């Protein structure tokens, strides 16, 4: 396997972990609440997801930057993708810091926006290479 293939594979895996985790949480948390899960269990679930997701996002950003330097992606598409990535990282960071003092409805809305932006990043990535 060539380095560019390894970088792409690692990048895609990291992005899949981030976005797939968001999709899983979007289905899992309401089901856990409906089943009577208490707040400490939900918080523990969120903390564990945070460890995995922030690691995945860090890997995705590093491998993404590396690929940009190697592949020469069109600058306009890169700007859009970078703006989306920056916004999703900032929003996820804000969400993580404020989650303890916001309502479940507000947390859910923020998580929904994070998920939509994450999926939009996929759309921009696909448009870049087609």
Tell me about this structure:
The protein is mostly helical. The protein has one domain. It is about 90% helix and about 0% strand. The chain has four helices and no strands. The protein has helices spanning about 5-35, 40-70, 75-100, 105-130. Helix 2 packs antiparallel against helix 3 and helix 3 (about 75-100) runs antiparallel to helix 4. It is elongated. The two termini are about 25 Å apart. About 10% of the residues are buried. The model has no long low-confidence stretch (mean pLDDT about 85).
Topology, element by element:
Layout (H helix, E strand, L loop, with lengths): L2 H32 L4 H33 L3 H24 L5 H26 L1
Number of domains: 1
Q: H/E series, N to C?
A: HHHH
Structural class: mainly alpha
What is the first-to-last residue Cα distance? 23 Å
What Rg is obtained from the alpha carbons, in whole angstroms?
Answer: 16 Å
Taking the sheet with the most strands, its summary is: none
Q: Approximately what portion of the residues adopt beta-strand conformation?
A: under 5%
Mass-distribution shape: elongated
Number of helices: 4
Quantity of strands, as a count: 0
Q: Whole-number average pLDDT?
A: 87
């Amino acid at each position: 396997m060539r380095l560019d293939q390894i970088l792409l594979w690692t990048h895609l895996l990291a992005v899949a972990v981030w976005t797939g985790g968001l999709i899983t949480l979007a289905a899992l948390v309401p089901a856990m609440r409906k089943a009577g899960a208490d707040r400490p269990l939900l918080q523990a679930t969120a903390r564990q997801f945070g460890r995995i997701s922030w690691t995945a996002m860090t890997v995705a950003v590093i491998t993404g930057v590396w690929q940009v330097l190697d592949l020469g992606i069109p600058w306009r598409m890169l700007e859009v993708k970078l703006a989306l990535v920056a916004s999703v990282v900032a929003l996820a960071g804000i969400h993580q810091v404020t989650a303890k003092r916001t309502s479940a409805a507000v947390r859910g809305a923020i998580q929904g926006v994070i998920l939509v932006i994450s999926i939009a990043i996929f759309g921009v990535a696909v448009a870049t290479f087609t």
